[in-house]
Design goal:
By secondary structure, this protein is α+β, with helices and mostly antiparallel strands. It has 5 helices and 13 strands. The strands form 3 sheets. It has a 6-stranded mixed β-barrel with strand order 1-3-2-6-5-4.
């Protein structure tokens, strides 16, 4: 996986007021750290950062962070966002090496068509959307795929059913459910309504209908 170059500036002021000013200027404050290096405060362009992570690798994009003329191989980690506007307010850049194994989280993508579930008017429900794994930075996949072609109603596919690329190790529990074939929801709803209609009416309401009219004799 080729890295993307991103330029960072050093010497940023600290404190809430200068930080707000930097964000107003379209910059994101951050810190570069890792492999025994002292944490280094930096800033990067918000637009450039967004473009750098817009590829299929997403947060696992390798970044050649250029700091004062020196390139550091990094990954963006611990990205903080504004709770309302959802813009990035701070980011940590973790220095990595090409030959080291690191932890990463990657999305799970479903492929194929669950024909038997579809023919039975069932529902394919994905229950796990990301996996934790370990690999060298260049070997981290953009996503892992799970083929659901053999899924049937009432069956579940687990993490153990996912095939991983060479050089990738799994950290998530093998028994975690990823996707399930659920029975038809319409039938379940109809059954629930039928049960309600078959319930006994309250005694105070049923009694008058069962009583006969008194005779006139």
């Amino acid at each position: 996986m080729p890295e993307i170059t991103l330029t960072a500036e050093t010497g940023r002021p600290t404190g809430s007021r200068p930080t707000r000013r930097l964000r107003a200027e379209g910059k994101i404050p951050g810190v570069v750290y890792g492999h025994g290096a002292d944490p280094l405060p930096v800033t990067v362009g918000a637009r450039e950062f967004q473009v750098a992570l817009s590829g299929e690798a997403g947060l696992n994009t390798l970044l050649a962070l250029r700091v004062d003329g020196t390139d550091h191989l990094t990954l963006a980690r611990d990205i903080q966002r504004h709770p309302v506007r959802n813009v990035v307010t701070h980011v940590d850049f973790l220095i990595v090496r090409r030959d080291e194994v690191i932890s990463a989280e990657v999305p799970v993508t479903l492929v194929g068509e669950a024909i038997e579930v579809a023919h039975g008017d069932g529902v394919v429900e994905q229950q796990l959307f990301a996996l934790h794994l370990k690999a060298k930075p260049a070997d981290i996949p953009a996503a892992v795929e799970l083929d659901i072609s053999a899924l049937t109603i009432g069956a579940t596919l687990h993490v153990s059913d996912i095939s991983l690329p060479s050089g990738v190790q799994l950290e998530s529990d093998l028994e975690l459910p990823v996707v399930a074939g659920l029975p038809p929801r319409v039938a379940a709803v109809a059954a629930g309504e039928g049960a309600e209609e078959g319930a006994e009416a309250p005694a105070g309401e049923a009694a008058p209908a069962a009583e006969a009219e008194p005779s006139g004799d």
